[in-house]
Amino acid sequence: MAHPCLSCGACCATWAVQLERSELTRALRPHVVPAASSRYVILAGTEGDHPRCAALQGEVGQRCRCGIYDHRPSPCHEVQASLQRGRQDSCCDEARVRHGLAKLRFDDWR
After folding, report:
1. In this predicted model, what pLDDT tens digit does every residue of 5-55 receive, in sequence order?
2. Which domain holds residue 53?
3. Separation in Å, CA 71 to CA 8, 13, 64, 94, 104
């Protein structure tokens, strides 16, 4: 069974993703834009009113993937697919609902 995130991508198209400059790596540098504070940067595409990470490949709610998955910053690690580890993740649930997708159920993991 494919991981539910590979047919979702909603979290990548819901919020701004801000990270500290100290977290930047060579692999991440091409994927960020300046933030309001010189201490931070933002993943490109997530800085506007209609966020969608520039690294998201595919369509939300369909086949998609993160183009920088192996190098994604800490804020991206914080959102976990709901019920993946047996508990709800409110960020995952909210992102899915905002994009017209149902919240994940335990059956989605079987």
Report:
1. 999 999 999 999 999 999 999 999 999 999 989 999 999 999 989 999 999
2. 4-109
3. 20, 18, 17, 24, 25
